[in-house]
Amino acid sequence: MRVEIGADSAVEATNEHESRGWPWRVAFAIGAGGLTGAALSDSIAVLGRHVGFGFLGSIEISQAFVCLIASGSILVATLSAGHAAVHMVTDRLGERQKRRLALVSDLFFMATFAVVIAGGFWVLFDMWGGAEQSELLGIPIIPFRLLWLSALTGVLVSVLVSFIKALRHV
Amino acid sequence: MFDPGAAEWVGYVGIVILLGLLALGVPIGVSLACVALGGLAILISPEAALIKSGVVSFEIATKYELGVLPLFLLMAHLCFSAGASRDFFTTAASFLGHRRGGLALASIAGCAGFGAISGSSLATVATVGSVALPEMRRANYEPGFAAGALAAGGTLGSLVPPSGALIVFGIIAEQSIGQLFAASVIPGLSQALFYMITIAIVCAVRPALGPTSARVPWRGRLTALKHMADVTLLIVLVIGGLILGWFTPTEAASVGCLAALLLCWFRGALNRKAVSGALLATLKTAGMIYVVIIGAILFATFIGVTGVAEQMAAFVRAVDAGPVATIVVMALVLLVLGSFLDGLALMLLATPIFLPIAQDLGLSPIWFGIFLVRTMEIGFVHPPLGLNIYIIQGIGKDIPVGQIFRGVIPFLTADFLHLMLLIVFPIITLWLPQVMAR
Question: Nearest Cβ partner of B287 from A17, A35, A77?
């Protein structure tokens, strides 16, 4: 994976999602729904502002869609093995060493995500009884925390599965 | 509480460990988060590190401003699906191709235009390169010069709005993305102009490098111009509307997505396959970026707690070298680091350390963002890493890497001159944001 932020010119294999399992399809549906919803709600807000009707809480609605984008995309990227890394050193190694380093990398990945997930659950339990909600529309936040933590847990499980598979080949 | 005097050392050791993890191939976002969480656990407490990670990750996942990045990515992918990738180069080539070095000039124009859709250097060089390099080779351009022009031109994609690098900088440095986009307009245009002047000079000295091609009749030129009118309108609407204050960056990206869907429909490319392909490509990149940003924010917190940036700022004050000399030293450090770190990793490592120093010197963070991205861009074409060089080499497989690096030298010279200009005259960067703010 080359490291850069932006759109890749080589348009991806568009039927890729049809050949994947259900976790991938669910992640794609959540992310795609988030993208579509965010684009629509913001566009309606812009249109409303310029023709004279206010769209109350449009930012809160978009924020909810952004959470769907984040949750879906982080899973899609992980299931597609698409996380950015620097390959300058590893590209110069033999296949066996590369595979071993990939396992080390997976261990760091899993340890870091385990900490982030644990931290997320800690905050979730702190907030559980507090009826956390958005200011204008009163959108409950807890379901979005749960969605995000489910996505992170999905990422962890996905890396764990690929780690176990890779372990057999070393 | 940890001994404050030793906190800086934890910071320096953390930076070394980070470089080690990156070298091992650990994903950038994970490396940043791993070092940050370990450091925060040592400096404050394991409980604080745990809670911070939970708070930061959800904040990023629901950050409205960060929605701008996936939405601009979707806009770009929809434009690719509509077949808008080649339009800028083919139109510029029809106008300039008959002049000496004209196709190289057209490739720079093509890169600037395509960059205004993609926001990415690598995407720009890959897409425009795949169209322009075979064209230039057919016209008997010297391969190294042609490839060098494209590799350099591709870097425009990182600077011209909607630059992905600037969006990420805006998020981690908590700066206005709209102002960063406005600030990048003149540096982006002047960079393109510098490259064009370089081509004109090189071709005047050695005409064999960029021979003339057949003149395209006016009817052909007007047809090409008409063909790219719709995508030009989209860019003007999105970037212009943003700079004029019609909408916020996230709204601009959303409007851009709808306009790109209309573009697909107008060009007869609107179908389920195209839309789902664009959504999929967007989600893959966005997911990678979310991990990177979570890591970067945690790392910035860690660096803030260590006091490394303050210590460096105090050192700079003690040396009393002045802002220009300090920034030149920073640029040299970034260029050296850019020899073995990719642009994104370099930016995420440098921002929390160098930005406080720049602010301490009284420099604008908006200016610093443009400076950082401009310096990062140079890393895309200078040896030994120069990712753009390898992408171009992947397109023109028979052109040796050394020949491309030689071809890029005149453009690197232009890059250094342009960077110096931005450092010495910050107004080039700050004028448009100041006008916008009035």
Answer: A77
Contacts 24+ apart (CB under 8 A), B82-86: B82/B231, B82/B260, B82/B263, B82/B264, B82/B266, B82/B267, B82/B269, B82/B274, B83/B267, B83/B269, B84/B117, B84/B228, B84/B231, B84/B263, B84/B267, B85/A9, B85/B114, B85/B117, B85/B127, B85/B128, B85/B131, B86/B127, B86/B131
Closest chain B residue to A152, measured at CA: B57
The confidence band for A85, taking pLDDT boundaries of 50, 70 and 90, is confident
Supply the pLDDT for residue A6. 58
Taking 50 as the pLDDT cut, the residues of chain B under it are none
Question: What average pLDDT does this structure show over A5-19?
Answer: 48
Q: How confident is the model at residue A5 (pLDDT cuts 50, 70, 90)?
A: low
User: Which pLDDT score, from 0 to 100, does residue A19 have?
Assistant: 54
Size of interface A-B (CB pairs under 8 A): 306
Question: Closest-CA residue in chain B for A85?
Answer: B27
B50 with A14: Cβ contact below 8 A: no
Residue in B with minimal Cα distance to A32 = B279
Asked if B279's CB is within 8 angstroms of A32's CB, the reply is yes
Residue of chain B with shortest Cα separation from A105: B26
A130–chain B nearest CA distance, Å: 16
CA distance B109 to B118: 14
Which residues on chain A are in Cβ contact (under 8 Å) with B163?
6
**In this predicted model, what pLDDT tens digit does every residue of B268-309 receive, in sequence order?**
989 999 999 999 999 998 998 899 889 989 998 999 899 888
Q: Which amino acid, residue B83?
A: G
H or E element: which one contains B102? helix B102-118
Distance separating alpha carbons of residues B43 and B11, to the nearest angstrom: 10
pLDDT at residue A13, rounded to an integer: 42
CA dist A31 to A75, A134, B67, Å? 9, 21, 12
Interface predicted TM-score of the whole assembly (ipTM), two decimals: 0.90
Q: Could you say which of A14, A62, A84 has the minimum Cβ distance to residue B292?
A: A84
Residue whose entry in the numeric block shows the structure tokens 């124009």: B109
Instruction: Categorize the per-residue pLDDT at A16 as very low, low, confident or very high, splitting at 50, 70 and 90.
Output: low
What is the C-alpha separation between B162 and A16, in angstroms, rounded? Answer: 28
Q: How far is CA B375 from CA A74, A84, B412, B422, in A?
A: 29, 20, 11, 11
Residues from chain B that touch A76, judged by Cβ atoms under 8 A, are: 280, 283-284, 287
**Are the beta carbons of B53 and A46 separated by less than 8 Å?**
no
Q: What is the model's pTM? A: 0.87
For residue A82, give the nearest of B37, B74, B287 by CB distance: B287
Please tell me the predicted confidence (pLDDT) of residue A82: 77
CA distance B319 to chain A (A): 34
Distance CA B251, CA A59 (A): 10
